Amino acid sequence: MPQKTRTTAIVTGAARGIGAAIAMALARQGHDLALVDLDESATGATVDAVRALGVRAIGIGADVADAGSVEAAINHVANTLGPPTILVNNAGILRDNLLFRMSEPDWDEVMAVHLRGAFLMTRAVQRYQVERRWGRIVNLSSTSALGNRGQGNYAAAKAGLQGFTKTLAIELGPFGVTANAIAPGFIATDMLRTTAQRVGMSFEEFLDAAATEIPARRTGTPDDVAAAAAFFTSDDAAFVNGQVLYVAGGPKG
Asked: What predicted TM-score, i.e. pTM, was given to this entire model?
């Protein structure tokens, strides 16, 4: 998509997988990038790849569920790259289990990273967006928001992100800020390997089995999700607000 507005973008969970692919897509649009992950050193390869596209990039180690860590990270971005006006809340973890086996930490940790993390990051960034009367927020939900066996915590968190997104669209829309969500289906990432192990299948078997249930007859790639993020953050999406886009190879929702 043609991009007229160059700015500073932040992507959380950007060390690998979907987050890294989104960072690359935004770099191709000409944005400077802050790649946030729990371990700063893990972002190194993606930072190098982004810089090779001719934009500035930094890696930041931060716990998105910790308010102090988030505030320090956002201040560092603003002082180093300039005011951030694009935010992609992608950081996530899995703690899958059936309800009767799920521990309280399993529940709390997933809620903290997905929901509290998105809240803290968005609260910190929106002040720069509102001040400039322009911004883009993209939250990563999931088809699991519709319900998925063994993922009561993850499903609840991802459904919560959809409600959060729609509320952001209402509150921030008057200030030129859009908020949208992407709900990926089966995407071939390392995180999905954990799910395959949980159900007792090899990663390849798991993907093959999933593909038979998808109308497109394949599982997705991180680049499929990144393409959606690139659209939502573009100037062409200025009138697209509060939407949830299922990137799943078939109809959902």
From this structure: 0.95
